[in-house]
Write a structure and sequence with these properties.
alpha/beta; two-stranded antiparallel sheet; 11 helices
Length: 309
Amino acid sequence: MELLIRPFGKSGLPWVVSAPPVERVMVEQRAASFAKRSIKEESKRMGLELAVSMMDLTTLEGMDTEGKVRQLCRKAMAPMDAVPGGPPVAAVCVYPNFVKMAKALTAGSGVRVASVATAFPSGQSPLKIKLAEVRQAVRDGADEIDMVINRGAFLAGEYGRVFDEIGAVRQACGEAHLKVILETGELQTYDNVRLASALAMKAGGHFIKTSTGKVSPAATLPVTLVMLEAIRDHFYETGARVGMKPAGGIRSAKEALQYLVMVKETLGAGWLSPEWFRFGASGLLTDVNRQLAKMRDGSYQRTEEMSPA
């Protein structure tokens, strides 16, 4: 399927985006196959430690406080109870008003600071306000911006408007990396997910991301596979790598390993790094720590014995 995308504003001449139709049965069967792979113990341990290094620990609640952000940042810098001295997570993700604080708390640790923006999670604010929010977060030190697309515009077929907004946010980010949240649970079809992925990458997103975590369903293996295949095709077409972030609903170490296997078999080992793949699933860390502790000690720790996230 090829679509002629007409710019909504002044972004230039119309252009063509290629988004081949998605065969639902084949995608779901292939995605299910990744849940059946047998992984040896040492590979499992290495995979779980890698998964921790790929996590974006997140607090995005209306009742967030400075104390909660401090706790999150401490956990981000020393996330693995079973591997003392292990590497930090990839990033902490907070609302814009906590960016400056998170940046100071994580200074020198290697943990990046990400901030949601563009009227998260709805995306329903004027573009001028969205861009002001992005610029302020970047001024305060955000290394990454997680934006949400305007799903209403997308579902209405206003693809040029969606493209232009992503491009404007990308420009407002400056040197900060842009993750484009599609909110796949609202996009209705795999074909829409594929097209939205192509739009986000063409418009300059450094990452494409499944979900805000506020809508169900969030990340699933089939949806993530559709997005990974879009990334693969974009790489073949342009030579440019784009990262992937499944977010929401990934809670077990077993699931995390399934995602890593899928990434490797779809995109290759080059994407198996925090630079190109992230988990947006703070609740996942507790189970990964439990599994690593069992591999080390031979027994599970109780959840309340794990240090708080």
